[in-house]
Amino acid sequence: MTFRGRVEYLGTGYGERFIEIACEPLPEPLRAVRCEEWRAEFPAILDDDENLWPLRVVTLLVYSADQIRGTWSARDRRDQIGLTVWLLGTGGALCFRAVTSLALMVLFFVGNGLVTVVGFVVAYIVGMVLGGAFGASMLDGPWGGDDLRKVVGGVALKAGCLLLVGLAGWFAGVLGGLFHGATHGAIVLGVSSGTVLGIGGGLTIGNDTDAASITAALVTLVAAAVRGIARGVRSNDDRTCDVGNLLTGFLVVAYVHGAIVGATAQFGIADFGISGFLAGVVVGAVMMLACLLTQLRGPHTVRFLGIGAGALTEGPRHLARFR
Amino acid sequence: MHLTASLERVLRVFLEDIQAHRYGYDLMKASGLKSGTLYPMLARLEQEGVVVSSWEERLEDLAGRPRRRYYRLTGEGVRVARQLLAEAYRAPTRTAARGSLPSPSGEPA
Known about the structure:
The structure holds two protein chains of two kinds.
Chain A: H1 3-23, H2 28-39, H3 42-46, H4 53-110, H5 113-136, H6 147-153, H7 155-183, H8 187-204, H9 208-231, H10 237-266, H11 274-297, H12 300-305, H13 314-322
Helix pairs in contact in A: 1-2, 1-4, 4-5, 4-13, 5-7, 5-9, 7-8, 7-9, 7-10, 9-10, 10-11
Chain B: H1 5-16, E1 22-23, H2 24-31, H3 35-47, E2 51-55, E3 69-73, H4 75-90
Antiparallel strand pairs in B: 1-3, 2-3
């Protein structure tokens, strides 16, 4: 092989490696296509008569290396946005847990209805917006995508999410109320109190994280369904696992909430008071810790064990990437 | 669609010959853009229906080299490109970058 041949061979080898690295952030169906497309440009670069042959090799290397910039910078932008939105979503929701808990205590211990209603409405709206933004951050573009547009686009889903979260809380509350009512021979009263508690309690008894999680789960599931219909489901284990986690997380959160409500009502621990709040805090903290641990450890099977916290999967993964 | 300087260059290259099928390196040379800028832009344009891509099919002409992926403007893409460039053409701040590139109608300037 001539010297020129050796240099071109070496350059092509490095170029192919650069292309492989560039393709890494791309989702699987796209990855193979882009790798093939970009490698197919090598002959055109090496046969370009407008340049001397050493310059062609340099051009090939620059061409390949710049593909890394293109794909990885898009991925970094996505991660930055995802991390920011996640911090806002979960961190913000946790902060507002205190606010809503205070509102609840005002409701039951002080009896100042107006303050409670205002606090509830503020917490509800902010919690839902943050939760929706968190969910929207999971929407994934085909290629690094127009992330901001998708985050903003998530706003359009919030109206539906509000309704769905309300229904989820109502469902859980009704279960608790039915249990309470059935054991006390007062079904109608049980359903009524359960309904009120379901709508209010799910979002106020220290359960803003639940609300955000449920919102995120629903938004992501809808997005995954739309994406699957539009482009075919990605053969990406992470994403598939996320969707499974989110669905399971949603169900677990709803039922755990119902169980807590039922238990506090049944045993009269504090009758929707402080113990309910504390139970919500403990469950939320355990869920978040389990989520964090399973995410940082990585394997998908282990991640599935964190199903109670499945709705919070994306954020810790972003954190793990940044470490 | 927001017209950036890079997008303007690419659209002008496409409009030079709206029937032409262009591959990536060809577009890079013609537009002066780097690969890391051009290909994400092409992907975005394809997603928005402005361009369409297809794999090279004439296998007997390839002479052992891998198939290329070719891009060309769609009918809607031609309309959008001309409209965007016409708007840019009217904007006084963007006139300096045009040089001898074709006018938005596709005719040589």
